[in-house]
Structures are given as structure tokens and as C-alpha cells.
Amino acid sequence: MKILESSYKELPDKEDQFSIFADQDADDGYSLTLSIENIHCASCVQRVEMALKEHKEVLSARVNMSTERLTYSWRGAKSFGDFLANKVIDLGYGLKPFGESVEGNSKGQEKTLLRCLAVAGFAMGNLMMISIGLWSEEVEFMGVATQDFLHWISVIIALPAIIYSGRPFFFSSINALKKRHANMDVPISLAIILASMMSLFETINHGEHIYFDSAVMLLFFLLIGRYLDIRAKGKAKESAKALLAKLHGTATVLLHSKRHNIPIRDIKEGMTILIAPGESIPVDGVVLKGVSEVDMSLITGETIPNLVNKGDAVFAGTINIASAFQLTASKASQESLLGEIVTLMERSERSKSRFVRIADKAASIYTPTVHVMALLTFLGWLVFGQTWQLALLNAVTVLIITCPCALGLAVPVAQVLAGSRLFKSGILLKSGDALEKLAGIDTVILDKTGTLTLGRPELIDKDYKESHLQIAASLAVNSKHPLSQAISMAYSGELLGVNNIEEFPGFGIQAFVGDNEVKLGRRQWCGNENDKETDEIELWLSINNEKVCFKFIDVLRKDAKDTVKYFQNVGYKVILLSGDSNKIVSNIAKKVGITDYYGEVSPIDKCEYIEKLKKKGSKILMVGDGLNDAPSLSLADVSMSPSSAIDITQNTADIVFQGIVLRPIIKTIVVAKQAKKIIIENFMLAIFYNMIAIPFAVLGYVTPLIAAIAMSSSSLVVILNSFRLNGKGIR
Questions:
Q1: Which of the following is catalytic: 266, 295, 447, 654?
Q2: What are phi and psi of 100, to 5 degrees?
Q3: How far apart are CA 631 and CA 694, in angstroms?
Q4: By the 8 A CB rule, do 509 and 519 touch?
Q5: CB neighbours (10 Å) of residue 368?
């Protein structure tokens, strides 16, 4: 069957042939999505995209770092997709059919960095012990032969360690130079290589000044930062990959009265899909046959299941929790609401990637400046009649002493210490620049269910008799419905015996208590046929002709009102956005003192609202817990999520806090403002260090060893200043 053709795709004979996985677009073009490896930074993204877009046949090309996904489309022959894929491979990036795991590549990079770090640490420890003896030479504690012997021991230890541990920086520098620009790894690599070669030359010629210890020590500390960076990126990829997995499973479709399992990506509009109890709905569609209840919390954020019948719309990613039904697909998987959420998250991720940190801006100026300064130092000393060895030594000194370690540590050390302090309070800082952004916010957007509230219903109405509650609880213990569970928790007495228990999905439970027929469920099903369903959370009990209503509320976090008041007192604009009904949202907003609130808001609506505010210049903190909040969490300047949120939302959020109160949000903001102050101070210290150290290095008053010590000292000063964060703030 033509409709199942893509289900039988097999891997190509050659690894670089991917066009068989391409999908034909409506305009007779083709699109292809592949997994891409070895993407490390924004320059990698730009390089791949520009390489593809230089061909006029290419309509679009996009690389997403979070999901490690390359998507491009083109006009012309289908096989042209292979040509484009080969262009990317020629640039040094690996490609695989999308869906094949690239996690192993990231794990491999982590292991490589750890091995490099271990080798550098081992070499540094041994070289420093040898250096103690070499420094003692100044007071004539050893002869020339002993000095040469220690120098050659240093060579044997240092050169293999430098060659092995320096690979991440050397390869990065080579790739940057191939692209005809220099990154921060270029001067670092150059300084390490020149210092090593100069030290080797000095060793061969029985010189006195050997700087292997400086080079290896520099490598050791830089590798620590590189490893922590890749670990952070690995965590950021988890959320998008987990969400995308929902779009790349299989589904059971009904074709010509026969069942077929096909990939979700191959589902087309109009197909009939069979949805079993407990199964995730693969695409947006309309119920064709059957009645059930669907958990919509991933989309709406609300915990109460929705009754669905013939003709009702359901969405991809939601869960069928009651009985089997048939679904007519209204959209292809890529066009579903879940697909739109993925797209929104990707767009948000790309916009975040444009955020350039202050250190990166400084680096764009730093790199060429340092190279020019080192070259002028070398030429200047030659002009003044000095030997090339001395001129080169002074140039290397400039490269080392201007190493941006202090500048590079200005932000991350403060963030690590602030993050550690927050972690002790049950607050997990996941994004490196979250604190910096949080310190500058002026608007707080809150979700309702699971954020302002605990996301669980609680029985509140006391108009019923205790005997009614006993009967209701006796039936409710046989159901997993959230409202039934709330009734069970509200009653702690002895339960009655019930017979002939039967649950009607989407309606309620029916049983016999003695000789009485009892129903527990929806208003109309319990005999109130003429009544309309209300916006209130309620459950009805029917005992013969007697009707009893149980009402529920979503429990507010106990400090929700105080937290909102704090935001308002410090000058923040507070907004409530929820997918729940307008009436319920209005009631919650009034209880906590929020005047700007909107109900029945879809995930797309939330994103559009945030984009409008950002265009007006607002700096937004978004707090949410459901999948419906994930795109808006990504789009906001900074985002927070409670630990009770789903995994995808927690992974998307910049900050995750534990507990049943909102006070951690306040503490995080306070710490963020303190961290920003410390970071500014660190930048000033790093700048002051360079203003003092560079002139001395250029004039030849500093040796490479002293430069390494000065560079390390500047880093130490920045670290000690950052430790002030441990003694500040609220508890």
C-alpha cells in the first residue's frame, strides 16, 4: 500500500546516502531531518547552515543544538539531499538518520575530557614537585648535571601530557583557523605550544628557564571548565529529546479492516487510529467511535481528566486513561499541537543561543588584541637588538599573562557558588546564565495549576452528611480518578460493603450499597439531566432519588499570596496565565491579589503573549509546571519550575525548586542580585589585573613562570571574591 511505503524504509547501502528518508512537500520540494554530531557552539551551527544555504536549490536549513537535529529542504531531484548531506560531512560533522541516538557521542566527549583532565592533573602534580628542586637552583643547591636531568624528566612527563590533554583546545583552534577566524582557544594553544617548544629548546641547550609546569597547569584548569560546560549542555539536551520521542514511536492504524503498526511520522490526515487504555495519543484528531477519559495535563496543565465522546477533539501527547476508542487523524504528526510545542521550544532555544555573554563579547576583542600585542612584543625586542630567544620568551609571556582565566572565571565561579548555596535550600540551578537574567527581570508570569496551587483537588463543601461521605468514599476507593481519590483521602472512617461495582469511563461509578443503587460521578449522569455542567470542580452522589454534590478546590500553596505581594512590593508586574476556565482563574487571582489574569489560554497563546511583552522591552520570569508551559518557559528570559512538574518541564526550566511553598522563588531572586554584583566586581578585578600585568610583560619584567603564577593569582582573587556569596542573603 502506498500509504505504508515509508514504513518499510531500510538503511542505505552507504552511510552518506540519506535521501531515502526525505519527505516530499506540498510544493514538490523535499525536506530531510537528520541527527548531527560534533555540534559544540553557535559558530558550528552557523557554519553548517551557511554551507547549505549557499546552494540556490536550498529553501531552508536549520540546526538545533539542543536536539542535535539538522533539518533542511530543497527543490529539485530527491538525490540532491545526499549531495547536501555530504557537504556537511565534509565539514567534519557526523550525520545519522534522525531517531538514531547521538547520546553516545556526548558521553564519549565527556569521557575524553575526563581522561585529558586526569592526565593533566597527574603531570601537573609531578612537574610541580620537580619545579621545587629547579627553583632551589637559584641558591646553588644542585649542579648543572642534576638540573639537566630534572629538565629532561620534565620533558618526558610534560610533552606526552600536553600532546594528549591539549587535544580539545588544539583541535578547536585548528577548526577555527580553517574557518578563517580565531577563537579564545587559539592564543591558549599558541601559548602552550610556544612555551613547550621554548622549554624543549632550553632543555636541549642546557638553559635554565623551563616552563612545562606553567603549560600543564594552564591546561589542567582550562579542562575543568571545558568538562563542566559539556556536562551542562548534555543536561539541556535531555528535555527536547524526551519530548521528541513522543513524535517518533509507532501507532496502530486501521486500513481496510486490518491493523497495521506504522511510525507516527507516517500518519496522514484521515487515517483511523486505534487508541488503547493507557496509551499516548499519537496525533491530533477527532473521536470516531467509543467513549473515554483523556488526561490532558500535558497540554492544558489541568489534572482533572476530560470526558471525550464521538466528535470530540483530542491532541497528541495526551493519555487515554479509561477505555479504548477510535480516532480519525485531523493532522499529520508534525502538524499536531505537540509538534507545534516542539517547534516553539526549538525557536525559543535558538533565540536564547543568540544571547551573548559579556565574557564572549570581551573575547571577540581580546583574541586579536592579544595576538597583535604578542607579535609587537616579539618584533619590538628584536628591533632593540635582543636575541630571538628572549624576544620569543617575552611574547610567550604576554600570551600567558593575558590568558583570560580570571575573565573566564568571573561569571562561572560566582554562578557555581550561588548554585551551591541555592542547592542547599532545595533549588537546582540548571542554566549558567539564569542568575544573570533573573537579576534583571521586571515581570513575573505565573501558571495556576501546579504553580500557585498544588495541582491536587481537595474536598471543601460541608453541606453533605457524614453518611453521604461514607457512601461516596466506599465507592471512590475503587477508582483512580483524581476526584475519587480526593474523597477517599477526606474520609478516614469505616467503609461500607458494596456490590456489583461497575465503572463507566467518563461518567462515574455505579454500585449497590445494601439494596440501594448508588452512583458517583458527573452531574447529568447522576440524574440531573436538565442541568448544565458548571465550571466548578464537583462530583455528584445519587442514592435512589437523593442527590448530593461534593465540591472541590485546587489547593493554593500556603505562601502564594505572600509571594505575589513580595513581587508587587519590589516593583514587578505579576500576571497569571492558565489553561483553566476563566471563572476558576478569576477566583484564584482574587485570592492571591493578582489583577492581570487570563484563563483558557493555550500553549501557543502563552508564547504569543510573552513575545508581545518582550517586544515592549519586558524582562520576564516564567514559572510553570506542565508541558503546556514548556514552550513559554523556553521563550521567557528566565524560567522556574517546581520539582512536582513533569520531567520535560523540569528539563526545560532554568531553575527547579523543591517543596510545597513558593518562597524559593524569592530566595533565588535575592541570590541572583547578589551574584550579579559579585560578577561585576570580578570583571573589574580581571580588567585591573590585565591593566597592571600586560605592560610589565611587554617590557620584559616578567618571565613565563611568573606570568603563569600571576595569571593563577588573578584567578585566585576572583575565586576568593566570589566566596563572599556564601555569607550573604536570606535563609
A1: 447
A2: -75, 135
A3: 47
A4: yes
A5: 13
Q: In degrees to the nearest 10, what's the CA dihedral of 23, 28, 29, 35?
A: 0
d(CA 495, CA 536): 27
- Reported as a single tens digit per residue, the pLDDT across 660-696 is 788 888 988 988 888 888 888 877 887 777 777 778 7
Q: Is the CB of residue 487 less than 8 Å from the CB of residue 473? A: yes
Q: How many residues does the chain have?
A: 731
**112 band by pLDDT with thresholds 50, 70 and 90:** confident
The tally of CA atoms less than 13 A away on the side-chain side of residue 204 is: 6
Give pLDDT, residue 319: 82
Residue 82 grid coordinates: 545526499
pLDDT band for 140, please (50, 70, 90 cuts).
low
In the prediction, which pLDDT does 534 show?
Answer: 58
- Helix or strand run (H / E) with residue 560: helix 560-569
Backbone phi, psi, residue 439, to 5°: -65, -15
Domains and CATH numbers, the chain: 2-100 (3.30.70.100), 250-333 (2.70.150.10), 428-453+557-669 (3.40.50.1000), 455-555 (3.40.1110.10)
pLDDT of 714 > 50? The answer is yes
The SS3 assignment for 534 reads coil
Can you count the helices (H) and strands (E) in the chain? Answer: 23, 27
How many Å apart are CA 572 and CA 535, to the nearest integer? 31
Helix, strand, coil abundance in the chain, percent, nearest 5: 50, 20, 30
Which three cell numbers mark 300? 492544558
Neighbours of 91 (CB within 10 A): 15
Burial 374-392 (b: 16+ CB within 10 A, else e): beebbebbeeeeeeeeebb
User: If we measure between CA atoms, which residue out of 527, 522, 548 comes closest to residue 468?
Assistant: 548
CA distance 524 to 544: 15
Set of cell numbers at residue 205: 641547550
Cβ atoms within 10 Å, residue 313: 12
CA–CA distance, 71 with 346 (Å, rounded to integer):
12
The distance from CA 187 to its chain's CA centroid, rounded to whole angstroms, is 31
Q: State yes or no: is 16 an active-site residue.
A: no
The H or E element containing residue 206 is none
Place of cell 478546590: 553
Full DSSP string of 456-494: EEEE----S-HHHHHHHHHHHTT---HHHHHHHHH--SP
In 231-386, beta strands by DSSP E: 250-255, 258-263, 272-275, 285-289, 292-295, 306-308, 313-314, 319-320, 325-329
Give the Cα-Cα-Cα angle 593, 594, 595 (nearest 5 degrees).
Answer: 115
Task: Please say whether the beta carbons of 273 and 282 come within 8 A.
Answer: yes
**Burial of 294 per CB tally in 10 Å (0-12, 13-18, 19+):** buried
DSSP state of 266: G
- Three cell numbers, residue 48: 553548517
212-245 and 704-722 are packed helices; what angle lies between their axes, rounded to 10 degrees? 40
Tens-place pLDDT, residues 158-214: 899 989 988 888 887 787 677 666 666 777 787 788 778 878 887 888 776 677 877
Q: Which of 348, 353, 262, 280 shows the shortest CA–CA distance to 4?
A: 262
Contact residues for 107 (Cβ-Cβ < 8 A; gap 6+): 234
In this structure, are strands 95-97 and 30-36 parallel, antiparallel, or unpaired?
antiparallel
Quick one: what percent of the chain has pLDDT higher than 70?
Answer: 72
Query: What pLDDT, in 10s, does the model give residues 544-595?
Result: 778 888 888 777 888 888 999 999 998 999 999 887 778 888 888 888 899 8
Nearest to 226 by CA among 350, 109, 123: 109
CA distance linking residue 63 with residue 216, whole number of Å? 35
Return the SS3 of 70.
strand
In the block, which residue shows the cell 489541568? 302
Long-range contacts of 362-366 (CB under 8 A, 24+ apart): 362/404, 362/407, 363/183, 363/184, 363/404, 363/407, 366/184, 366/402, 366/404, 366/407
